[in-house]
Prior knowledge:
Structural class: alpha+beta
Helix content: 25-40%
Number of helices: 9
Oligomer: single chain
Radius of gyration: 19 Å
Shape: globular
Bound molecules: 2-oxoglutaric acid, fe (ii) ion
Low-confidence stretches: none
Mean pLDDT: 94
Number of strands: 11
Distance between the termini: 28 Å
Largest sheet: 6 strands, antiparallel
Strand content: 15-25%
Amino acid sequence: MKNTFQKKLYENGYLIIKNVLNFERDLKPVLNDMEFVMDCLIQKYTKRKEIKKVLNLDFRKKYSFISKLNIYDLDKYFNTRLPRDHVKKDSDYFATQSLWNLITNKKILDVVEKILGKEIMSNPVQNTRIKQPEKKLPKGSIHDGLSGRTPWHQDAAVLSTHGQKFCDMVTVWIPFTKTTKNNGCMITVKEINKMGLLNHISGYRGQVEIKNSKLLDKFKPIYLQAEVGDIILLHKHSIHCSLPNKSNNFRISADIRYNRAGTPSGRKPLPNFYVRSKNKKNIKIHNYKQWVALWEKAKNKCIPRKYAFKYPLPTFKHNNRDLSNLLTK
Ligand SMILES: O=C(O)CCC(=O)C(=O)O
Ligand SMILES: [Fe+2]
């Protein structure tokens, strides 16, 4: 039997929950840490005599500045997880105390509990996205998902084949800036999530994209707009993408995920640990340092194979689960 929350999430593929988080307490610390990372990059990569001037810029100007420095794989410094490819001993990532606080935030877990029940694990599929106005982006990044638009996809598609089948996962999308049609909110189409997992193919940068996604243009989109403090839940089969940031401002968000304990994470050997349980003994990771240690342990496992995760694409070798076939049924 599904409760009201579960029914609504299944019916529409998404749920917008208003006023869950407090900007100053829950969100600002993450922005501060992002700025701290920028300051470190500036000190490392800027000409000596320019450093002082650049450090005095505001958040947006600093980010614009470093995004022009051609730093290899810049996104990795702001991402909550190991870089997808080329994992090395010194691979850096954005596992900060503020992110740990967000992942274990009681107010978020209280919402997630209504969907997944009382036994909840943090899932390692997580991203932070700093999106500048699209007109400022290098051409190659316009559809890359992290700094540009995100193509149509379902979140279950980024899991291993085992995870696609068995992981009971929910996405929590968190805005750090008010997110609107104009600055690149996500859009979705209701009900298609009920079709289950669709066939996905590889996008131009190896990202995940629904096959025949052009067909979705004829549906009425739902704009997933949100205020700072709101959170958006996505069903693992919700189909969604994000619009271009046409504003003159930044659009910043994080997406973190949780899975029901006892179901696979879909991203072995990355950290997957209890954040809530009726049996307190299940909770073994109690603080930020233990969490970072988990990521470092996972990193050591990924170094020999060089990647942190891979998308099994195309998702299906046959056409039965192609959107084009399912829509005509
Ligand atoms: O924020 C975005 O552009 C896309 C986010 C997304 O696809 C997700 O949170 O699952
Ligand atoms: Fe997604």
